[in-house]
Design brief:
It comes from Paenibacillus oenotherae. By secondary structure, the protein is of the alpha/beta class. It has 11 helices and 13 strands. The protein binds 4'-deoxy-4'-aminopyridoxal-5'-phosphate. The site of 4'-deoxy-4'-aminopyridoxal-5'-phosphate (PMP) has 12 residues, from helix 3.
């Protein structure tokens, strides 16, 4: 740690226990490698985004952006049959997650979440000394809802489909959870477009004032580079969050790009369909190669090889300039998580796997 000479420790002592976020592995972004390790969308964003940027008057950038992201909130509200007062936008859904912790939890509180899941919930909790109760999923990664409730936590975070596993929790189960739990329930729907809108907990907004649904433009809209996410919840929760967010938390370019992409629903449907078709094909082919493949409703597949170790396959693919994800955490260590690439990328991956196995 860093004591400055002659000064007391300037930061909170618990900061010493944290580490900065660095992506596991970040290969070149120039298309020269097959990068299927971060659940990015292999297709470009909507052509409406290109059109918009082509005609963009850079002089607008001397103005501050719309502080409340109001036009974007209105668009999102209208798309879900809700009011803009039930929507809040953030600099990626990660910022919205941080904001949720800041507004709803304090030092000593506990939040519960399944294990495995998106690791950022714990990263944020650690910063403000909120405890995280991890509730192990079943062998096939089914989430133990009663286990989550039994922790007595003040809030429950569920990524649906779940991060790392792709497993979808049916809407009915979320409703059952909300019927017996009064704490804050955050349903993180980063991957929901790949599962089908009918599975979204947005349909339960209005009926459950303790529910927050999180969304992002990073996955299905191919826009992780602009950092836009949002949440939908009861007006009273959104109002509380609005009081605690940064003044201009979503920049102007991100706001207008997000609006252009959200307005192009036919493009979203086409790219999502292509990704889902490739996912189903990759699942079949991995089965044929002897992998165990966990059922996924997201834009990635978690799988377990049997002929060779996950680590060996990871390294072999890496040497071929194909980057998949290999975790070293319990439950995931002998598995690979493969994001769905273009049809050509999936073919290339399969060709190399067939050669190696
Ligand atoms: N939630 C889940 C479950 C995710 O996997 C991710 C992306 N890694 C995020 C939220 C954050 O997405 P972003 O900050 O790009 O909106």
């Amino acid at each position: 740690h860093c004591y400055l000479e002659g000064l007391p420790l300037l930061y909170r002592k618990s900061v010493d226990t944290l580490s900065p976020y660095v992506p596991g592995f970040q290969p070149a972004m120039d298309g020269s490698v097959i990068k299927i390790n971060s659940n990015e969308n292999p297709y470009p964003p909507s052509p409406k985004v290109k059109e918009l940027l082509g005609g963009f008057d850079f002089r607008q950038l001397r103005y501050y952006p719309d502080a409340t992201s109001q036009p974007l909130r209105e668009l999102i509200g209208a798309q879900h049959g809700l009011s803009s007062r039930q929507v809040l936008c953030g600099n990626g859904s990660d910022e919205v997650i941080s904001l949720i912790f800041k507004v709803f939890f304090e030092q000593g509180d506990t939040v519960a979440t399944p294990y495995p899941t998106y690791t950022f919930y714990k990263s944020v909790a650690d910063i403000i000394n909120v405890k995280v109760a991890f509730v192990d999923t079943a062998e096939d990664f089914v989430i133990d809802l009663q286990g989550l409730v039994n922790t007595g936590a003040k809030g429950i975070f569920i990524a649906n489909p779940n991060a790392q596993t792709g497993r979808l929790l049916p809407l009915q189960s979320i409703e059952e959870l909300l019927n017996r739990y009064n704490g804050l329930v955050v349903i993180d729907e980063a991957y929901i477009d790949f599962a089908g809108q009918q599975s979204s907990a947005v349909h339960l907004i209005g009926a459950y004032p303790n529910l927050i649904v999180l969304r992002t433009l990073s996955k299905s809209y191919s826009l992780c580079g602009i950092r836009v996410g949002f949440c939908i919840a009861d007006e009273s929760l959104i109002h509380a969050m609005d009081k605690c967010r940064d003044s201009y938390n979503v920049n102007h370019l991100s706001q207008i790009i997000a609006a252009a992409a959200l307005s192009d629903q036919p493009y979203l449907e086409t790219t999502v369909e292509r990704v889902v078709r490739s996912r189903d094909k990759l699942e079949d082919e991995l089965h044929k190669l002897g992998f165990t493949v966990y059922p996924s409703h997201a834009n990635f597949l978690l799988c377990k090889p049997h002929q060779r170790s996950a680590a060996d396959i990871y390294n072999y693919l890496k040497a071929q300039q194909i980057y998949v994800r290999h975790f070293d955490s319990p439950r995931l260590s002998d598995k690979l998580r493969i994001s769905i690439g273009t049809e050509e990328e999936v073919e290339s991956l399969l060709r190399h796997l067939r050669q190696y196995l």
